[in-house]
Amino acid sequence: MLDLALAIAHHLLIFALFGVLAAELVLVRRGMGVDAVRRVASIDLYYGLLAGFIVVVGFSRAIFAAKGWSYYAHNGFFWAKIATFALIGLLSIVPTIRFIQWRGAGTAPNDAQVNGIRRLLYAEVVLFALLPAFAAHMARGYGEFR
């Protein structure tokens, strides 16, 4: 039962994280105003919280659930998934800092600033698409090494 609960929680958190990322892409656009800056800065807080919960639930699942740590520790797709998630997290640092700066200054970004942040958000989306592919391979036992 623990395995099922952790799997459901993990998947719901991943879907929620992608929803937040999609919301940021919708809000961060040319001509965005101060209200949109406040909104996206608030939403971005959930991005960080969800990512933290995903790490906790994901590793709990890997350690305590049905397959156990020995299954995941020796799987290249598991580590590719972890590395990709970490890279997404690193890419998200710059947008988070910019959102905080824009909100703190009480100003809206110019088009060049928006374009730079959108490029990073799109990179996150592209990398995010790799996560289910790695997960599907991993779940089927591909990528095992010893």
Describe the structure.
The protein is built from six helices and no strands. With 146 residues, the protein is mainly alpha-helical. Helix 1 packs antiparallel against helix 2, helix 1 packs antiparallel against helix 6 and helix 2 packs antiparallel against helix 5. The longest helix is centred in the middle third of the chain and has 31 residues. 23% of the residues are buried.
Spell out the blueprint of helices and strands.
Layout: H1 2-27, H2 34-64, H3 69-73, H4 76-91, H5 93-105, H6 111-139
Quickly describe the structure.
The protein has helices at 2-27, 34-64, 69-73, 76-91, 93-105, 111-139.
Helix content: over 70%
User: The biggest beta sheet, please?
Assistant: none
Gyration radius from CA atoms, angstroms: 17 Å
Structural class: mainly alpha
Q: Would you tell me the overall average pLDDT?
A: 96
Helix tally?
A: 6
Q: How would you describe the shape?
A: elongated
